[in-house]
Design goal:
Radius of gyration: 20 Å
Number of helices: 9
Oligomer: single chain
CATH class of the largest domain: Mainly Alpha
Distance between the termini: 62 Å
Structural class: mainly alpha
Order of helices and strands: HHHHHHHHH
CATH topology of the largest domain: Tetracycline Repressor, domain 2
Shape: globular
CATH superfamily of the largest domain: Tetracycline Repressor, domain 2
Strand content: under 5%
Helix content: over 70%
CATH architecture of the largest domain: Orthogonal Bundle
Largest sheet: none
Number of strands: 0
Number of domains: 2
Length: 211
């Protein structure tokens, strides 16, 4: 292994060390109360080292979304390329894929939903913002491809596939945020999965061409 390759590996290892520490701090304190100094202490690094890798707290916060967006892309590609007997099964598989992404890392997924509707995006480097946008576009594109196939085969109503993808994503993120807000008040009231089951069933019936 060459010197440059070792340096790159060490840089990536240190970057992941910071991201893991940031996740713990954001989970314990929340985004607003957490500081770069808290994250540096958790990572057992100096604050100056943190700023070498991330220019501000917003960028570090947003970087947490990349891993889950990549996982989302992989799951959606699998659903798109899988063979099903009918499109009802494909919608069921799509529902399971999205729920699996939630279970993969609930905290980061919820943070990502908040990020998408906040001013934080304006404070990111052009490179990080471009990567987040590309991964988001790819995810919505995969969902749109699924709907477009169903429309072409006469299984789904003739509506723009990107609009259907946007509606599904808005429904999914809205339910996650709403049910999470209720669970904060009463941890015993965890109705996320049953609510998603009902929502996806209504969505499937709504887009079905066979009424």
């Amino acid at each position: 292994m060459g010197i440059q390759e070792r340096k790159e590996r060490e840089r990536e290892r240190r970057r992941q060390q910071i991201i893991v520490a940031a996740k713990r701090v954001f989970s314990a304190k929340g985004f607003n109360k957490a500081t770069m100094e808290d994250i540096a202490k958790e990572a057992e690094l100096s604050p100056g080292t943190i700023y070498i890798y991330f220019k501000n707290k917003d960028e570090l916060y947003a970087s947490l979304s990349l891993r889950i967006l990549k996982h989302l892309n992989i799951r959606l590609e699998h659903v798109k390329n899988e063979t099903f007997q009918d499109h009802g099964e494909r919608i069921a598989s799509l529902k399971q894929a999205l729920y699996d992404v939630y279970e993969f890392d609930p905290l980061i997924l919820i943070n990502m939903f908040h990020l998408q509707s906040s001013e934080t995006l304006k404070n990111l480097s052009p490179e990080l913002l471009a990567e987040i946008k590309e991964l988001s576009r790819s995810s919505l594109g995969s969902m749109a491809d699924i709907f477009e196939e169903g429309i072409n085969k006469g299984a789904f109503i003739e509506q723009h596939p990107i609009a259907l993808a946007d509606i599904l994503w808005a429904m999914f993120s809205g339910i996650i945020l709403w049910e999470e807000s209720k669970r904060i008040i009463n941890k015993e009231k965890d109705y996320l999965k049953p609510t998603l089951e009902v929502a996806f069933d209504i969505f499937r019936q709504g887009i079905s061409a066979q009424k």
